[in-house]
Amino acid sequence: MSDNLIDIRHLKKYFNVSSGLLHAVDDVSLTIPRGKTLGLVGESGCGKSTLGRVIIGLIKETAGEVFFNGEDATKFSGEKRAEFRRHAQIVFQDPFSSLNPRMSVSQLISEPLIINKSCKSKAELDAKVAELMDLVGLASRLTTSFPHELDGGRRQRIGIARALALNPEFIVLDEPVSALDVCIQAQVLNLLADLRESRGYTYLFISHNLSVVRYVSDEVAVMYLGKVVEKADNSTLFRQPLHPYTQALLSAVPIASVGPKKQRIILEGDVPSPVNPPAGCRFAGRCMYRQEICTQQTPELVEVEPNHFVACHCTGHLVRHA
Ligand SMILES: Nc1ncnc2c1ncn2[C@@H]1O[C@H](COP(=O)(O)OP(=O)(O)O)[C@@H](O)[C@H]1O
Ligand code: SF4
Ligand SMILES: [Mg+2]
User: Fold this and answer.
1) What is the pTM of this model?
2) Do 264 and 282 share a domain, yes or no?
3) Closest ligand to the CA of 225
4) Which atom of ligand 1 is nearest to the CA of 59?
5) What CATH number is given to the structural domain containing 24?
6) pLDDT score of 260
7) Is residue 136 over pLDDT 60?
8) 3-state secondary structure 259-300
9) Same domain, 212 and 158
10) Ion ligand 3: protein residues whose beta carbon lies under 5 Å
11) Is the pLDDT of residue 1 over 70?
């Protein structure tokens, strides 16, 4: 059995839009070890959600492979594909819009179990729903409540229970706390951490919020316009970011107890369009280290020190000066 539950190779997702081909995910290779959390961070529109959806097969990839437990899930069909879809689940950002308002808590949590014919009797179904509600911290008195009667935290617990119903191994958490009040965010993050600990889940945790990603992740990947520009273990990335974009992102948020105080780097220029992007580094228009080569050749993601990957032509310079 491979140590990496997820192993994505050269994954691409392009959308045909009126102005051309939108490169939402462009040649992304990543691994996620079993039982670990990979944080995926980047500004809105950089392709995080698309990547998460393509990995679990909700959206068909344009090219590339997604190895799950050592097998290429993009080639699965029939029962094998159905099994993969059970093992790879997603929790969405906005639990309100992702839950049918006309269904009660027990109906919402039963739904995936009924669709997948997971229970042989009504009694077994009720017992499973009660078990899932308990697991995610929903009081049994809420069984007959409807989503609009609950606060955002409880609604998100329903979303999590639905994702857990079919005993997944891998869960994409797509901004799971971004729509919640700050104090409720911590409760839901702790629930997710406890579940990972007790059940051994593997997470892809997507967020635009660096503080949240730092709190939950073992490793962190930074995305910019469809590409992963840096990946490292959590402490390395926050202590010694090497890509100019990561450095700018980190300089913009006050994160306590991370290295020496850094001067804020103001990003200049606009985020370029992901439609028909030119060759070269996508960050070149905003980068203070830009060289001639940057607009001519696309930098590959390379390992510049053990388990620290950076896609930048000038990493030699960056390593020395970081
Ligand atoms: N179904 C779609 N059709 C066309 N463009 C899309 C579609 N889904 C996402 N995009 C585009 O892909 C890019 C990445 O979007 P998304 O993955 O939602 O980013 P993020 O989650 O990082 O905010 C954006 O430019 C977005 O407009
Ligand atoms: S490749 Fe060049 S433009 Fe891109 S981040 Fe590195 S130095 Fe900046
Ligand atoms: Mg998104």
Assistant:
1) 0.94
2) yes
3) 1
4) 1
5) 3.40.50.300
6) 53
7) yes
8) CCCCCCCCCCCCCCCCECCCCCCCCHHHCCCCCHHHHCCCCC
9) yes
10) 49
11) no
Q: Could you tell me if 302 and 206 lie in one domain? A: no
Among the bound ligands, the one closest to the CA of 40: 1
Cα–Cα dist 278/219, whole Å: 30
pLDDT of 253: 76
- Verify whether ligand 1 is closer than 6 Å to residue 66 (CB atom): no
Closest atom, ligand 2, to C-alpha of 245: 5
Domain final residue, candidates 185, 200, 217: 217
Q: Which residues line ligand 2 (CB under 6 A)?
A: 244, 281, 283-284, 287, 289-291, 294, 299, 312-314
**Cβ atoms of residues 203 and 38 within 8 Å:** yes
What's the 206 CA to ligand 1 centre distance in angstroms? Answer: 14
The strand pairing partners of 176, in sequence order, are none
Give the number of domains in the chain: 2
Q: Tell me the CA–centroid distance for residue 17 and ligand 1, in Å.
A: 11
Residues 94 and 199 grouped into a single domain: yes
Kindly report, residue by residue over 35-45, the tens digit of the pLDDT. 999 999 999 99
179 and 227 assigned to the same domain: no
**Residue nearest ligand 1's atom 24 by CA:** 45
pLDDT beyond 80 at 307: yes
Residue with more model confidence, 76 or 279: 76
Arithmetic mean of pLDDT, 35-62: 97
Decide whether any atom of ligand 1 lies within 6 Å of the 46 Cβ: yes
Q: Name residue 292's amino acid.
A: E
Same domain, 151 and 8: yes
Does residue 22 line the site of ligand 1, with CB under 6 A? Answer: yes
Q: Closest ligand 1 atom, CA of 50?
A: 17
Residue 171 sits in the same domain as residue 259: no
Phi, psi of 149 (to 5 degrees): -85, -5
pLDDT at residue 101 above 50? yes
pLDDT at residue 278 in the model: 82
181 and 38 within one domain: yes
pLDDT, tens only, 103-117: 999 999 999 999 999
Q: Which residues contact 9 (CB under 8 A, 6 or more apart)?
A: 29, 64, 65, 66, 67
| Ligand 1 pocket check for 18: Cβ under 6 Å | no
The minimum-distance atom of ligand 1 relative to the CA of 16 is 4
Token reading at 123: 């009694």
The whole-angstrom separation of Cα 142 and Cα 301 is: 48
Where a domain ends, among 217, 246, 280? 217
Please write the tens of the pLDDT for every residue from 229-238.
999 999 999 9
Query: Which residue segment(s) compose the domain that 281 sits in?
Result: 223-321
